[in-house]
Amino acid sequence: ETTPDEAQFDDLIARDERIEPRDWMPDAYRRTLVRQISQHAHSEIIGMQPEANWITRAPSLKRKAILMAKVQDEAGHGLYLYSAAQTLGATRDDMTEALIAGRARYSSIFNYPTPTWADMGAIGWLVDGAAICNQVPLCRASYGPYARAMVRICKEESFHQRQGFEILLELMRGTPAQQRMAQDAVDRWYWPALQMFGPPDDESPNSAQSMAWNIKRFSNDELRQRFVGMLVPQAEALGVTLPDPELRYDEANGCYAMSPIDWTEFHEVLAGRGPMNAERLRRRREAHENGAWVREAATAYAAKQATATRE
Ligand code: 3HC
């Protein structure tokens, strides 16, 4: 027997309407949104680190300014997403504590090192490119605050992807050493970027329910295919080779045939045993500790303001 609240929620979902913070929602809907949105927010914040590594070493003032703008954007994306999660009752302190304690997930992709400048191009082109494929459908997610945060984020992601493509294009038009550096970065980031979309559909425990609730609009494998379809012509334009000798368009099935993805590596990274997991959390913990005085000052100031207005 469904209650009137459940019936109303089911009707809103069936009519593909938005669920807003004050609407009744099943606890499981709230929980899976806090799960996904907080992890998305953590990913944006941790995602600042690989690129921050090159802000002081960018090859020109122009590149330095662009990279700083991109890293600042990621911080803002984290802010929008933490705020969206807070509309569901999650608190910033709990989410931050879970991340710092190593209890929260964030995107696997940010656990890889950025040894050369070409990594800034590969991250923009591949990681932000994958993010766009994943985030554009999320602009139509059933939960209002999440969908609206995505609209703003997607606008900034396209700039992130374009500047990455341009870095690689400049390197591919450079010396043989620069071309090798660009190809090396593409070789290192291609497979982890495919893993960003999540496990294969038949190993994705959250997908069915997430799609039934209009949170996830396309499956992990569908978006992975869409991403590869976007990459192939762009790789040709760049003159880089995608590191998969099996990659070819399978006309009969209307999809890209590719080499098997190494899901063992994916699960190792998710278990915290990726190349940079420990460093990312150490750095995030350090930033949180360094920022304690700002939070204390803000709290003290707010308390003084509250007293002043009472007097
Ligand atoms: N990294 C870490 N964990 C991942 C993952 C990845 N790339 N892909 C899947 N997982 C986790 C899931 O969180 C889930 O674990 P959980 O139940 O403990 O949360 C488990 O693996 C099984 O995966 P599912 O497919 O069942 O999980 P979802 O239905 O949540 O799908 C997802 C995974 C597609 C990543 C989905 O959560 C999603 O769309 N999230 C929002 C997008 C996002 O987080 N993007 C991160 C990229 S960061 C970014 O975009 C920054 C940009 O500016 C560069």
Automatic annotation (TrEMBL):
Enzyme's top EC category: oxidoreductase
Gene Ontology BP terms: phenylacetate catabolic process
Protein origin, superkingdom: Bacteria
A molecular function GO annotation: phenylacetyl-CoA 1,2-epoxidase activity
GO cellular component, one term: cytosol
Gene3D superfamilies in the record: 1.20.1260.10
Protein name per UniProt: 1,2-phenylacetyl-CoA epoxidase subunit A
EC assignment: 1.14.13.149
Species assigned in the record: Agromyces atrinae
This protein's UniProt keywords: Oxidoreductase
